[in-house]
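Re: duplicated header lines in exported C-alpha cells

Our pipeline writes sequence and C-alpha cells for each protein into one text file. With two proteins the header for the second block appears twice in some exports. Here is an export where it did not happen, for reference. First protein block:
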Amino acid sequence: MKRKPLSRRQFVSIISAGSALLAVNPLAARPSARSRQESKPATNIADAAKTPRKPGSMPGKFPGKVVMTANSRSVVNDEPVEAEAYLMLQTAITRLSGKKDLKSAWRTFVKPGEKIGLKVNPVAGKLLSTSHAVVKSVVRQLTESGIKKEDIIIWDRRMPDLKDTGFTSENYPGIKILATEVQDENGSFVDASGKFHSEKIIDRDWYYWADEEGVYDAETMPYMVNGGKYSYFTGIVTKEVDKIINIPILKNAGGSVTNAMKNLAFGSISNTGRLHTHLWNETCAEVCAFSPIRDKVVLNICDALRGCFNGGPAANPQFICNYNALLVSTDPVAMDRIGYDIIAAKRIREGIQKAPAPESLKFLAMGTSLGLGVSDRTKIALDTVDLG
C-alpha cells in the first residue's frame, strides 16, 4: 500500500509531539537485567584519547544546537527538488552559523584550500540514497563560497554503490569520487598479485580493534577488505581530506535511528560485519571518537527529504516516506537525537510501536560520555524553520 506523504502541518505536529513525548535522557535510562549481565567484547577505545583534541573537534562550534528546515515543496512525485533543497540548506546554514550571508556562513566551517570530503550514504540504492538535490546544493553553496571543485571529494565505502546511485564524475564534473572498496575496469576486486585493490586504500596506522573475530567467505571478503579483530580506517579520512561534511539520510534501525554517527562509523572502517551483533552501539560511538573522524567532521547535514521509519536501513518501499526536511548541526549526537524523535513519533503514529524506546539510544549516551555531543533532549536547542 502506497502511503501518502506527510503534509507540512503533519510533520510539524510530529516534531512538536516528539519534543514533549520523547524528551527522555538516555543517560538516565536503566539497562535491562540482560544487558547488565552481558559481557561486551573489549575494544581499544582508550587509544582514541591518546590523540589530543583540536579546537573544532566534535561536537564542533555549536554543541547541542540543531537547525531543522521543513518545506512541503521539497519533494514532488517522490522526487526531491534541488531548488527547494538549496533554499532549505541556505536557511539552515545561516541560522546555525549566525551569519547573514551564505559565504560567511560556510566560511565558519570550511576555508578555501582545504580538501572537503562529502560523506554520502548510497548503501540502500536509488530508492533511499542521499539525494542529489541535497548533495548538489552543498556543492553549489561551497563553490559559491570560494571552495574550488577540485578540492571537493564525494566519498563512501563502496564504489559500486556510488556508481549505482549516480555519484559519478559525469553527474559531478570536476569533483573527485572516492571509495574504499573498489574494483578495476574488469570488475575484479583483486590485482594481478591477488591482493584487494582496497588494501592500498585502507590505512593500517589507524584502526578500531575489538575482541570479536571477523570470519568471511570468499564472496563477502571483498566487501570487508580484511578479517580478524582489526577494522582499519579508510585512507580517505586519514590522508585525503582536511574536513568532512557528513550527509546521511534519516532512516531507522529497528526502533533506533541510523543517521549521522552510523554513517560515519560504519562507512569509515573495514571489517565491519563482525561489529553488528554485539558492538553496534559501541562502534557507532567509539569509531567517531578517533581523531580522523572526531577532529575532521565540521558539519552534519541530514537529508530528511525522503527517509524511512521501518525496515531500515534497507530500502523497503512500503516504509519510505517524505519527511520534507533537513537537519543541520555540528553535533552528530544531538542531530541523531532529534532524528530519533522524528522516527519514533512516526512509528508511534503508524502503530508500529506504542511508546518511545530510550534503551535504543545507548550509542548516543556513549557518544556523550566520549565528549562527542549532547544526547540529553532537554539540553538540545532545536531551531525549527517552516518554509511552507
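Second protein block, exported in the same file:
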Amino acid sequence: MLTQEGCLARRTRLWDALPAELEWVLIADPRHVHYFSNFLVNPLSFSAGERGWLLLERGGKATLLGDNFTLRSRSGTPYIDDEVMVKWYDHKHSVINRDHALLQAAEQVSERLFGRAGAVEAEWLPVGAFELLGLDHEAHSVKKETRSTARRGPVDLGTVIRSLRRQKEADEIALLKECMRAGEAGQLRAREVVRPGVTEMEVFLEVQKAALAAAGRAGFIYGDFRACTPTVPKAGGLPTQYKLQKGDFYVLDYSVVLEGYRSDFTNALAVGEPTPQQRHLYDIVMAAQKNGETALRAGAKARDVFTATEKPIRDAGMADKFAHHAGHGIGLAHPEPPILVPESDDILMAGDVVTLEPGLYVEGIGGIRIEHNYLITATGYERLSQHSISLF
C-alpha cells in the first residue's frame, strides 16, 4: 500500500509546483485523493463508486471529507490530520442524497477557506460545491478575495497533479511490483491450461485465480483474454466461450489492479505446435522489443522510442501490420503519459513507468503481441515485469 512517507513526499512536490500565494487546495479526483492520502474507497465494497474529497493546506494539514459509510469503506489507513464525517446512514433513519452529504462536509470547512487563496480540482468538483464555496465555477483557482469577487486564476490543478503522477515514489513502485508479481503468476498458469478445446473463459478463470492467490488479497483483473486467429488476427477484450483451436494465438494482455495501481504486460501463446509463420512473427516482435529497450532512458523522446521499436518490423516489410502504439505509461491509469507513438510530444523522465508492446496482426497467420513494463532511470531502465515471453 501507499506509505505515509510517500504521501507526504507527493504533497511536498505538489506545493513546490504551485504558486506560493496558494494556501489550500481541494482534491476531488478519487485517484488523486488516494495519491496524496492513501484513502481509497474499496472498489469491491458496498460504497464502490462513492468518493471523498481531500483538503490540503500549505501549513501541512490534511482533512478528509465525506459521509460515514464512504469514509469507513476504505482499503487502508489514510494519512490525514482530521476528517469531517457527515452521518449519512445510521440503520435507523432514511438516507439523504449521498452527494448532498459530501457537500455538507465541504460546508463545514468552507468558512476557514474564505479570504484565503486556493485552488480546486475543477474537472471533478460539481457545480453545487462551487456554489457552496462561493467560487466561480469557470475558475480553477481562487485568489485571496471575498467569495463574491473570486476570479479565474492561473492554476489548472488537475493537470499539475497528473504531471506529478509520472514520477513515481518508492511506495508506488513497490505497489506496482506487487501487481506485477500477481500478473506473472497468471501468465504462468496460462501456459499450463492453454490448449486446443479450452475456452477463452476457462483460461481467464484460471488466470484470475492464480493471480489473486499470488497477490494474497482481493483485487480485480481486466484486459485482453482472446484468441487471435488466422481469420480474425486482431481481437481484444474480455473472454468469450470461443474454444481455442490449433493454429490460434492466445493473447494474454491483462492488468492486475491492487489499490488503484496496475500492471500491464503481455504474452501470446501458440495453441498447439507453433507454425513456421508464427515463429517468424515471434522473432520480429522480440527484435522490436529489444530494439525499443535501447532507446529507453530519461530525456529520450517518446517518438524516438516508437521509431526504435518499429525499426525491426519496418525492416521486415511489415510496418502496416503494426497497428498501435509501441507502449505507454501506467500507474493510476491505463494508458497515461508518456505515449510512445510517432507524433508524440512526450519526453521520458526518471520515475516514469512505461510499457513496450510491439505486435503484428497478419491475416492467414494470426495476431501476436508481447509486452514488458519498465521503470525509467537517469541512465536507462529497470525492467519491472519478469514473466517469460515465448510461444509455449
